[in-house]
Amino acid sequence: MEKLLTVAVPVYNTKNYLRRCLDSLLQNDILDELEIIAVNDGSKDSSLEILKYYKSKFPNTVRIVDKENGGHGSAVNSGIANASGKYFRVIDSDDWVSAESFSDFVHRLSKEDADLVVSDYRREYSLDSRTELFEFSNLEDGKTYKFEDFDIALLSGEYFVMAGSTYKTEVLRKCGLSLFEKTYYVDMQYNIVPISEIKTFSYYRLDIYRYMIGRAEQSVSLASYVKNSLDHERVIKFCVSFFSELKENASETVVTYLSIIMNYFLYTHYRIFCLLRKNRYESYSMIKAFDSFLKESSPFLYNESNKNLFIRIQRRTGFYYLFFGNRIVTRLIFSLNSFTRRVKRLIKSCLGA
CB-side exposure of 101: number of CA atoms within 13 Å? Predict the structure, then answer.
């Protein structure tokens, strides 16, 4: 039977968090509309046993896909391939949702037909118990927007991320989304590729997703960025190539929107190699090679990224400062860049922009 919403839950060695995740999703008033596809991605702990318990307790809602380890991207791909719901979203097994907001979301979704539904999310910082809400304050709750006519300025520099995005399943299949396997940072692909098929999107002012930050093994930790920098480069090169090909026939709105995302990714990438890597000679050669790749593959993105002070100073100095105390110099530039962005936001706020 077709469900309204499929939630893919990638699972890999998360026995300590899995129950919290599933309990937050399995609300009695929405079970008939909900399909949970828990993809056990070769876990070596007791995660599969936990999933089997929930499958026995909620046989009409919980499905298990048990597969060899292929990474987060492989688990999401499996979820899309097996989904029966009209809509699809991803909830990582070490994260969770606000039960009340999620129930409201599913009820509202029953009357929805937009290609993409965007909602709010929070970052929960486990080390200092801090929480940070991410919302689109300029968007109207419940309103459906035509993407082609949408004023990108209303996003105020934000974009639609995996934690806040619910796509029509047919959109994800039609765009041919296939995330890299055994590769970190594939959420960049997830945030970019489906936009090629988005015609409409709706915004729900619901604080749903709880994204936990603070585990040392997370891909967004500084140590992981260093360790998996080649993965980051693989994915961002794919995104650059995808953008360059799409740009030829895409609308101005799509190009503008994806430029915002790509500039953020590029900024992160230059930081990884110029701030975090220990071997400065290797860092120098790799970032120079990537910079040449970007300039050749997408002159448009190259010029757009040059608007970023951090990247612009690197290029103007020829990246040579990597040979001389690169951490100090890079941090100085990063601090200056952050200060400039804060001043710009303050000015916009004062002007009522």
Answer: 15
Please tell me the distance from the alpha carbon of residue 163 to that of residue 144, in angstroms, as a whole number: 19
Q: Comparing C-alpha atoms, which of 67, 111, 62 is closest to residue 91? A: 62
Contact of 36 with 26, CB cutoff 8 Å: yes
Ordered by start, the domain boundaries in the chain are 5-213, 222-351
State pTM to two decimals.
0.89
Of 188, 273, 286, 288, the closest CA to residue 239 belongs to: 188
Report pLDDT digits (tens) over 295-337. 999 999 999 999 988 889 889 888 876 555 455 555 555 555 5
SS3 of residue 10 by DSSP:
strand
What is the dihedral sign for C-alpha 112, 114, 116, 118? negative
Burial class (CB in 10 A: 0-12, 13-18, 19+), 31: middle
Using one digit for the tens of pLDDT, what is the confidence trace for 147-200?
999 999 999 888 999 999 999 999 999 999 999 999 999 999 999 999 999 999
- Residue 108, amino acid: R
Architecture of domain 5-213: Alpha-Beta Complex (3.90)
Cα separation of 193 and 306, whole Å?
24
Cα separation, 310 vs 307, in Å, equals 9
